Amino acid sequence: LIINNRCILLCDSCWLWWHSVHLIPVSTANKNGVSSKSRKRIMPDPVTEPPVTDPVYEALLYCNIPSVAERSMEGHAPHHFKLVSVNVFIRHGDRYPLYVIPKTKRPEIDCTLVANRKPYHPKLEAFVSHMSKGSGTSFESPLNSLPLYPNHPLCEMGELTQTGVVQHLQNGQLLRDIYLKKHKLLPNDWSTDQLYLETTGKSRTLQSGLALLYGFLPDFDWKKIYFRHQPSALFCSGNCYCPVRNQYLEKEQRRQYLLRLKNSQLERTYGEMAKIVDVPTRQLRAANPVDSMLCHFCHNVSFPCTRNGCIGMEHFKVIKTHQIEDERERREKKLYLGYSLLGAHPILNQTVNRLQRAAEGRKEEIFALYSAHDVTLSPVLSALGLSEARFPRFAARLIFELWQDREKPSEHSVRILYNGVDVTFHTSFCQDHHKRSPKPMCPLENLVRFVKRDMFVALGSSSTNYYDACHREGF
User: Fold this and answer.
1) Which residue positions does the secretion signal occupy (predicted)?
2) 92 catalytic, yes or no?
3) Cα radius of gyration rounded to whole Å, the chain
4) pTM of the entire structure?
5) Active-site residue, 12 included
6) Residue of 177, 291, 326, 374 marked catalytic
7) 248 burial level (CB within 10 Å; 0-12, 13-18, 19+)
8) Residue in 171, 89, 173, 93 with CA at minimum distance from that of residue 399
9) Tens of pLDDT along 281-335?
10) 134: closest CA among 147, 123, 121?
């Protein structure tokens, strides 16, 4: 794999670097240049990680370009455990940028779905055919006004790409093989009330959810598919007003700003790029160029040029490196953790309530899907204590599994998985449990206690409920 003037040989035990010339398309045998084993890894591993943090490697992981079938740990449990319920949180798939670099030509990405174009999935044609016929039912407003699949020869801003559709068809197929074929989570005559589907009002999240469901369900019956609309990217429903959460966010944004001011190399890079596109540096920075640059990178499209020169990989590497440094300081300063505990509480509380109902024997909503954004998953990961987890890549998935012990039917346990990796014992509420118990999962009551009480304790206040924590004085 030749990237950024380097030839990188990826293997499980070594990284060898040679100098070369240009960014060259990755071979189809392993399209993102990272083995399926290391591609899904979220915690640093001294064997498979590069010797130092490498921005190109991290960007490849973020792109998540579909490759060989992914090995995952979903659905793994001793034979005497029965799978009872699954709650899935996804980030939408690969999308066109939300911002453009001023005075440059937009990257030419085709957002129609074409069978003979890579990446491809065996269900792609059937998905297009099914979506093109229309749903025949109505989703919660305003979702019924959104297109069911991407279909523009030149992508619109923020539009899901073919890569994004294939990522979630692949996610759905993987989960189907595990949860339906192996564990029979849904009965053959499954009904609407056994699914809970919720998405924001963006076409990319609705379409990602539909793609995953099309890969997942054995019978995609429109009469049984109903998406609820969530106005907030935090999925906070009727509990979105939280002044203290907003104060944490303001302090976190201030921290980001101060870190950027200290990075002289970053400022020089923005200055060089601004000269190339002939705009003030502040205007370029406000246009968030990394969003567009990631699109160029993930789709192997040359970075833009003007008569003043070209934006290049060295610029991209500096900006991406700063992002990685920002994430590292964010974990250390804990301001984002405070924001996350309050920002993620409503959706975690809803999830816990659903898991408790399933543990009581209720058969409604045994499979839940939240089709969301990076700004949804990131606070949830942080709130759970998964501070080492990588920033949500395109088509990231976070899954809560509920299991019943057949030998002790009153006992229920949970597993938490992120991109196919079991992170249950990395969570703050269960990080020591495996030392005391041979069970490869965590008691449900640990998660319940964390969401109902310990999340507020972690804020360092005397609050015992979400409202008080959001409105406490003197923060």
Assistant:
1) 1-23
2) yes
3) 22
4) 0.89
5) no
6) 374
7) buried
8) 89
9) 999 999 999 999 999 999 999 999 999 999 999 999 999 999 999 999 999 999 9
10) 147
